[in-house]
Amino acid sequence: GAVVSQHPSWVICKSGTSVKIECRSLDFQATTMFWYRQFPKQSLMLMATSNEGSKATYEQGVEKDKFLINHASLTLSTLTVTSAHPEDSSFYICSARVGGRQMNTEAFFGQGTRLTVV
Amino acid sequence: AQSVSQHNHHVILSEAASLELGCNYSYGGTVNLFWYVQYPGQHLQLLLKYFSGYPLVKGIKGFEAEFIKSKFSFNLRKPSVQWSDTAEYFCAVNTGGYQKVTFGTGTKLQVIP
């Protein structure tokens, strides 16, 4: 299957600093990528849909100024957690679908990034 | 908006027991349905998917799922589980185009040798 790579796998940062997480589709072009957040013992919650060359679409309740998403190329989307606080500590996962607008495609997931804000 | 319900949060089985994990979704239109698995320390992997056609789909590692449209269900089954099946299982639904994939809350399966 297609490969989606996230970097870093884990990061520890001080409260008030910003952290950037990268999501790359290694062997396919992804016009759309998705960013999820997974709290302990809970499911994946979609944060935003990242569209190449345009603004991201954020889910209700997600602060767009805090979670900046940039999808500058067909293989790279970045999520920047700005002015991070301890409550932002979580597991962030990206995914990408092969085929873009086609409905009948599966999503491939990155390995996730464990963010700990101290 | 679509939603997905997984009724079993934690299931404990002995090896060789049969498995059935429930999944129900709410959406009136055409859906794509998925089961993903997350082994300890690993990322999500696709187990199987249903897009259209015959409602019984087979996936990797002996898993299968049946789409019952009238019940809005997509239950996951395996006749005989192994210790290596210990993982968390997520049911997911997608309603097409750029629409998001919505996940259920997950079911932790623990298989006892």
Given the C-alpha coordinates, what overall shape of chain A results?
globular
Low-confidence stretches of chain A: none
Beta-strand percent range of chain B: over 45%
| Secondary-structure element series of chain A | EEEEEEEEEEE
- For the record, give the distance between the C-alpha atoms at the N and C termini of chain B, rounded to a whole number: 41 Å
Multimeric state: heterodimer
Mean pLDDT of chain B: 90
- Give the count of helical stretches of chain B: 0
Main β sheet profile of chain A = 7 strands, mixed
| Extended strand count of chain A | 11
Q: What is the SS-derived class of chain A?
A: mainly beta
The largest β sheet of chain B comes out as:
6 strands, mixed
Question: What key attributes describe this structure?
Answer:
heterodimer; A: 118 residues; mainly beta; seven-stranded mixed beta sheet; four-stranded antiparallel beta sheet; 52% strand; B: 113 residues; six-stranded mixed beta sheet
Description of the structure:
The complex is a heterodimer of chains A (118) and B (113). Chain A is built from no helices and eleven strands. Chain A is 0% helix and 52% strand. Chain A has 118 residues and is an all-beta fold. The termini of chain A are far apart. Chain B has 113 residues and is mainly β. Chain B has strands spanning 3-5, 10-14, 19-21, 24-26, 32-38, 45-50, 56-58, 64-68, 73-78, 87-94, 101-103, 107-112. In chain B, the strands form three sheets. In chain B, strands 2, 5, 6, 10, 11 and 12 form a six-stranded mixed β-sheet that branches. A four-stranded antiparallel β-sheet of chain B has the order 3-9-8-7, with no helix packed on it. In chain B, strands 1-4 form a two-stranded antiparallel sheet. In chain B, strand 7 and strand 8 form a beta hairpin. Chain B starts with a strand and ends with a strand.
What's the SSE blueprint?
The complex is a heterodimer of chains A (118) and B (113).
Chain A: E1 4-7, E2 10-13, E3 19-25, E4 32-38, E5 44-51, E6 57-58, E7 67-73, E8 76-81, E9 90-97, E10 107-109, E11 113-117
Parallel strand pairs in A: 2-11
Antiparallel strand pairs in A: 1-3, 3-8, 4-5, 4-9, 5-6, 7-8, 9-10, 9-11
Chain B: E1 3-5, E2 10-14, E3 19-21, E4 24-26, E5 32-38, E6 45-50, E7 56-58, E8 64-68, E9 73-78, E10 87-94, E11 101-103, E12 107-112
Parallel strand pairs in B: 2-12
Antiparallel strand pairs in B: 1-4, 3-9, 5-6, 5-10, 7-8, 8-9, 10-11, 10-12
